[in-house]
Amino acid sequence: MRSVLFVVIGLVALAVLGPLLAPYDPTAIDIPNRLSAPSARFPLGTDALGRDILSRLLYGARWSLGLAFLISVLSLLIGTSIGLIAALGGKSADWLLMRATDTFLAFPELVAAVVIAGLMGAGTWSLIFALSVTGWMRYARVARGIGLSVQNQGYVVQARLAGMPGWSIARWHFLPSLIPSLTVVWTGMFARAILGISALGFLGFGVQPPNPEWGAMLLDARVHMRSTPLQMIWPGMAVVTCVLTINLAGDALRDALAKQSSHE
After folding, report:
1. pTM of the full structure
2. Which terminal residue of the chain, N or C, has fewer Cβ atoms less than 10 Å from its own Cβ?
């Protein structure tokens, strides 16, 4: 649990404090120093427009991590709501919502997000919408499964007999049971959101220039991949490091919860 907390705090600190640590303006063009190798002045070198790569990476953390957090939270809210409605709304609502969930799961998330973003047009809002509406299905299935198992528990039956409203039952009896499992799912989806943002940014559908998002940095650097490969290596390493760290933290959280459940 502590490792997960440290990871979350570290990523939040990177997104919030990164711009404060950047040595230069990430959008400042300096043509005389374009494609500079790493040096004391530019620790990670510069891109084709002479912009400092370190500064762009630090500023880009706010876009990549901040948007990934927002998208994963929106997906969590959408999926949990749909899952609870399916579990509590009766057989007809359950069948309809789960068939809709299965339909969404039938399409690869990234392909569906690219299609949606392409239809809406490139930009930050279309990116958020595309990745949010293609990332809620796992939350819905988990919430439905737990909801179905909880609704027949004695304390839930007693609450219904006592006349407690459905929304109150969901709040006080269902959500506490959902939080541990959904937290584990959320860590994985947070990492997937970072990959999705970077992929759409690399395809030109995400955050638009001159904003220094990591996927957009990969897109800008691809032209000079052979002559100056470090331009692509740095943002690629940033994406891989964040995704790997979040996934490892999610695995640690899952193991901790499983160990706690076995003791109980």
Report:
1. 0.87
2. C
